[in-house]
Amino acid sequence: MAYDWWLTPAVYAGLSVVLLEARLRQAASTGKKLVFSGSVSLKLLFSGGALGISILLVQMGAQSEWWADLALSLLAICALLAWPKTIVLDDQGIQCLWWWRRKVSIPWNQVEYAEAGKVGSIEIVGTNARITFEGYNVDPNRFCKELTTRSKVKQIATPGEFTGLHL
User: Fold this and answer.
1) Whole-number Cα distances in Å, 50 to 14, 32, 95, 129
2) SS3 label, residue 108
3) Phi and psi at residue 145, in whole multiples of 5°?
4) Cα separation values, 135 from 22, 62, 64, 80, 92, Å
5) Is 98 inside any structural domain?
6) Is residue 115 within 8 Å of residue 122, measured between CB atoms?
7) Is residue 50 part of a domain?
8) Distance, C-alpha 143 to centroid of its chain
9) How many folded domains does the chain comprise?
10) How far apart are CA 8 and CA 136, in angstroms?
11) What is the CATH number of the domain that holds 90?
């Protein structure tokens, strides 16, 4: 089998487009709430993947082995479970919403610190919960500004930096 040298750069270019779109899109404002959803290109990637796999399963029907059907079904389910979460900021605090999991909330007065992570992510640590703003969520600059304005966190720490609240 020949090595497809172009495949790795193509994957990196695709992921870069997803992150670039997330940085360029603005958060949606609904009343007093700011909504930081996942980028449209990432949602299209996951939904297209799940739909494509489902169509493949239907077309293959009984012609394939049971283990191949199981593997493809699990892959489609994983694509749906990886659907990007939505972060909502309002006057009470930060909320993290998934379609398949319960809502996680951190009131503004319970935000202890925030730390930058991999690929543009920001981990917000509260007294009783943690929320991660991923690099694929839209408008990261606005999120950082709102976080430092509304909470007692005035600077987002870099990984490993001593903030006085954790070691």
Assistant:
1) 18, 34, 27, 31
2) helix
3) -65, -45
4) 7, 41, 38, 19, 24
5) yes
6) yes
7) no
8) 14
9) 1
10) 20
11) 2.30.29.30
pLDDT digits (tens, 9 = 90+) for 81-109: 888 899 999 999 999 998 888 999 999 99
Domain that holds residue 155: 26-38+84-161
Q: Please write the tens of the pLDDT for every residue from 10-54.
A: 888 887 887 788 778 888 888 889 999 988 888 888 888 899 888
Place of tokens 């001593």: 162
The answer to whether position 79 is within a domain reads: no
Enumerate the β-bridge partners of residue 146.
Answer: none
User: Is residue 77 a part of any domain in this protein?
Assistant: no
Is 114 within 8 Å of 126 (Cβ atoms)? no
Buried b (16+ CB within 10 A) or exposed e, 105-128: bbebebbbbbbebeeeebbbbbee
